[in-house]
Amino acid sequence: MTTCILGVDPGVSGAIAFYWPEAQHRVIAEDAPTAFGLIDAVTLADRIRQLKPDLAIIESVGAMPGQGVSSTFKFGRAVGTVDGILSTLVIPRRFVTPTVWKRHWRLDKDKEKSRALAIQLFPSCANHFARKKDHNRAEAALIARYGAEVLCK
User: Fold this and answer.
1) Which residues pair with 32 in a beta bridge?
2) Which phi and psi (to 5°) does residue 6 adopt?
C-alpha cells in the first residue's frame, strides 16, 4: 500500500503538499485554493479526496506579534477550515510547530532557505517551487516529509 502524507502550511496564503515516502522525490505542492479571500473549502476537500492522504501534518502556529485582529481572525478561520475538512474526511492529523520541523531541517525563518531545500530534496518536482512566492508550497512539502521521517517512524 502506498502511503500519502499531506503537509499543510496553513492560512489563506498557505499551501498544501502531498508526499509519498515510498517515492522520496515525488511531491505535489499547491497553493491553498481560495475564493473571496477565504479558503475554498469545497475545492480543498475535493483535492484531498482525490489524492487520499493517510495522514495530515499541519503546522501549528499562532498569532504573530503586531498582527491585526482581523488578520488573526482570518488566519484562525483558515486553520479551522482545514482542520474541519480533515475531520470530516476522517483523515488523522498531527500538529507540529514551526520551531520543531524547521529544527529537523536546520532551517530558520528565512523562507528562501526552505524553498532552496525543497528544490534540493524534490529535484524532479522543482517546478512546484520555481517562483520566489512558492515558499509556502516548499514549507508544506517539508512539513509532509518531516512527518514521514519523524512522526511515522
Assistant:
1) none
2) -95, 125
What pLDDT score was predicted for residue 25?
85
Q: Are strands 15-19 and 93-96 parallel, antiparallel or unpaired?
A: unpaired
pLDDT of residue 38: 87
| Inter-residue contact 31 to 15 (CB < 8 Å) | yes
**With the C-alpha atoms ordered 134, 136, 141, 145, is the resulting torsion angle positive or negative?**
positive
* pLDDT tens-digit readout, 113-131: 999 999 999 999 999 999 9
* CATH number for the domain harbouring residue 96: 3.30.420.10
Structurally, the chain folds into a number of domains equal to 1
Structural domain harbouring 130 = 5-151
SS (H, E, C) the chain: CCCCEEEEECCCCCEEEEECCCCCCCEEEEECCEECCEECHHHHHHHHHHHCCCEEEEECCCCCCCCCHHHHHHHHHHHHHHHHHHHHCCCCEEEECHHHHHHHCCCCCCHHHHHHHHHHHCHHHHHHHCCHHHHHHHHHHHHHHHHHHHHCC
